Amino acid sequence: MMLAILSAALFALILIFCGNKGAKSIATTCINGAFLLGMLAVINMGVPPFIVTLASGVILTSITLFYQNEVNIKSKVSFLSVLAVLLIVLPLVFWLIRSANAGGFNSEQYEITDANGYSRNIGISMPALEACVMIIALLGTLIDTSIAISSAIYEIRANNSRIPLADLMKSAFTVGKDVLNTSIHTIFYIYVAEYMTLMIQYITDYSFSYVINSKSLAGEFVSVSLSGIGCCLIVPVTALLGSILIKGSDTSDAERTEARDV
Description:
The protein is an all-alpha fold. The protein is built from 8 helices and no strands. It is 83% helix and 0% strand.
């Protein structure tokens, strides 16, 4: 009952303050949630997790950007930037998982044991599954940061149509730095809040050396670091692509308008 009340209050506030954009945001969240459940079902059927996650990541990014934010130059720039950074980060994902041995169940997950009736042998590569989890988590950070920067570039260009490309890039990087500062703090607070109970358990039951060498801490540290790295990379990529493509798009639109007038 409490979940229904909170959900209704959340949806009502989104619709009141965000209107049609809020309705699209709710619909996008529901579509993405259903798609993620379908992705898990496909992985459980035996399809390689990495292939499923890559395909799903592209589709989820498309839904979030092109349905929620509509098909325009801002969403196109963000989409290309996310894909570019994702390709850059993928080798790092596998290297980090292999080096940190972050795949598999943690020893602190007491409920997932053979003695409790669960099987740890689920027939799926744990490192591959861990890579999929990190990629999905990374996508959210990349999309939010990229669309914020591309929207800012678009507004700068719209309010100063004669701004030189070099100045537009400089402004884009300035905006990107501000967005990056906020995004890094957001990532940190989310992970700290999510694993606060585990931290309390660590402090109560384990020594400092055990905490430093634990798989759960290593996995979360890798995930936080990867999200931070992706967030840092998306800033220059979006700033460069956005400045070039948005300015070029506006120039093309102006040329077409002049041609029609003639």
